[in-house]
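The data are quoted verbatim for completeness:
=====
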Amino acid sequence: MLITLGEVAFAGGDDVATTLPFLRGGDLSSLPAVETAGGVFTDSGVPGDAIAMLQARGMNAVRLRLWHTPDAGYGHGDLAHTLAMAARAESLGLAILLDLHYSDDWADPGKQTKPAVWAALGFTALRDSVRAYTRDVLLAMKAQGTIPDIVQIGNEITPGMLWDDGRVGGAFDTPAQWTQLAQLIESARLGIDDALGIDDALGTGDSVAIMIHIDRGGDNGGARWFFDHLIAEGVTFDYLGLSYYPWWHGTLVDFRDNVIDLATRYGKKIVIAETAYPWTLGWADNTFNPVGDPNQIHTCYDATPDRQFEYLRDLVNIMTAVPGNAVAGWFYWEPAWLPSEAFGSPWENVGLFDFDGELLKGADAFSAGP
């Protein structure tokens, strides 16, 4: 499917100073749980380390999800597992994107629940807790020599974060709520500065980039609404992060037009923080999968291993053709989330390994583009 970009002027992005290459990443947050449960990964039948296999196909970055105090049954998402995964990534020379959810569980457009220990705090105490918690996380990463290259403040925060204090949209679409959201984000940024000794005026401290991440990869109106409000509150950041799944966020044309407009409008580098595409509509277990309906498939791309690769290749080609090199990279969400006897997976038909753990052709998309 050929999609052309047309003639578009790009007026921003040069203000972001970074030494990072074009990011070709994977969110591997659940990998420790899969490995503990006995998951085996193979490439052409040869078993090995899933991270190394993906890196050999071109992956150069990892994204790591961190919850405040997750249920121990998850087997991932806590600070100990995140630190261990960061150490593995660092040892392989991979860039690190730290995804701070500011919740004990999944934070997304449908829910942004405060950590239980913060549930009864007033706003001032909540703001202080966000700063202290963020500081402590970054100090732990710094202590082991794995300072992330990018820190994502919140996950898919289109409706805000830390509900209801930082909630926006609907009945919460008020100036007071937007101000509180901005203050919570600023508290997180200050926590990062505290940990890394950052003083912008003096030019001191370790360098780390800030990402603000929403879910509206193909929804230009929704993305403009959010970032117009946030920037009006004086929030500063380096990367504009988007999730893009075609069954939720529109066609490749919608994606292309949105990314070009956002890059031009805000002058920010854009990272596709989450994306994926199914290689089959079948399921390997009884755990509900959000993808499985033929109506969810993008026109021209059936749910097969070959079409998964072609879809991702074409998506990457759209990213890299955006004027001004505005798109700084992309991350495949949970490519290695296999099911096991211990737990099911809602994502096994959308990963980059088949049901038996064999690497799929879709992983070659990490080498797509210039």
About this structure: The two ends are 18 Å apart (CA to CA). The first helix runs from residue 31 to 36. DSSP finds nine helices and twelve strands in the chain.
